[in-house]
Structures are given as structure tokens and as C-alpha cells.
Amino acid sequence: MDFLVLLSWACIVFTVGMFSTGLTDLKKMMSTKSSDNIQFLPFLMTCLNNLGWLYYGMLKKDGTVILVNVIGACLQVLYIISYCHYTKEKRRVMGKSSVAAGVLAAGWLYFCVLLPPGEDQLAQLGLTCSVVTVCMYASPLIDLVGIVRRRNLECLSFPLTVATFFTSTSWVLYGLQLHDNYIMIPNTPGIFTSLIRLFLFWRFSSVAESSPGYKPLKQ
Questions:
Q1: CA 144: distance to chain centroid?
Q2: Burial of 6 (0-12, 13-18, 19+ CB in 10 A)
Q3: Upper half-sphere CA count for residue 164 (Cβ side, 13 Å)
Q4: What count of other Cβ atoms lies within 10 Å of the Cβ of residue 77?
Q5: pLDDT in tens, 120-162
Q6: What is the DSSP track for 24-88?
């Protein structure tokens, strides 16, 4: 099998697996009929990111990027609808959703209407998607400071950490094969942030296991 084809399948399997970790939150919302202790913003940001990369894949005619982000966007929409259904703060959630819809509309207007088709359009879209992806990978670093101070891993998900590591690695290799910096560079931070989180699991596992609140199999 061609190495690029193998990487393509790796990207699809690992990325869909990473997106599917949200099914745990979905199951929790359905069983408790509540969205308490579940964050809404990651679903919203991931959905916007998926739609941006979907359009990038369409412009590049890259079936791997298209398929992964179609599945990702559908899953995020499912999570968002479920959250909106079960949340008690519907006004706040709808406000954030309206802002996201406005950002999406502005992005569509700029990239699809104002920018002429061509390399400049692809480059600007790739740069925008890359910046958003880097921010999403870097955002957990803020929480890691608190985790180190408390030596408590309860807010970290081990399956998500592993999935993020393999997903980021496969996309970096895929971008290298295609010589596409917009795919390769933004996924590189995902490798490092995942390694940091894996180190914390190793470093504080004994402390966490002695705590009655530590439930690694249920995260």
C-alpha cells in the first residue's frame, strides 16, 4: 500500500476517533438530562474549525480532508443540538451560537465572495484555519498550570490525550508528504501538548489513583 494512502487512512481513523470522544459527553447529557459540568465552547469552536478545513479541502480537492471534516462537523452539530436541548442556560448558549453563526457568515462572505478564486484564496484560508487550530491545541495549556499546582488529573481525559497525539502525528506526516505547511505546521503543537499531558498522567498517576475522585475509565 502506498505510504500516502496509509497516512490518509490513519488521519481518517484517528481524527474520527478523536471527534468521537465527545460521545461520552453526549451519553452523560442523555443519562442525566443535563449539561452540567460539560463545556459548550469546544463543540462550537471545533465545528467552526471543521467547516473551515472542509472548505480548504474542497478547494484543494483533497478527499481525506473533506471526509474527516464532514464527519467532524456532523458530530459537532449533534453535540451542539444536544447541549442546547439539555442546558438550563439556553439564552447564553444561543448567544454564543449566534456569534459563531455571524463569524461563519463573515468568513463565507470574505473567502467565497470577496476573494477571487486562486492561490491567494487558498493561502489566506489555510492560514486562518491554521491559526484557529493552533489556538485550539494551545488552549489546554492554561489548564495544565492548575493541574500541576493541584496534582489532580480529574479534568484531563486520557483517551482524548492519546487520540490527539496520534491524530496530530498522522496529520503532520500527511502534510509533510503533500508539502502542505497549512496542514503540517498547525498540527505540530498538538503533538507537544499531548506529550505534556501524557507526562502529567505518568507523573501524577500515583497521586491521582489514591484520590477517590479519580475515575480514568469514565472520562
A1: 17
A2: middle
A3: 27
A4: 14
A5: 999 999 999 999 999 888 776 666 666 667 666 665 677 888 8
A6: HHHHHHHHHT--TT--SHHHHHHHHHHHHHHHHHHHHT-HHHHHHHHHHHHHHHHHHHHHHHH-S
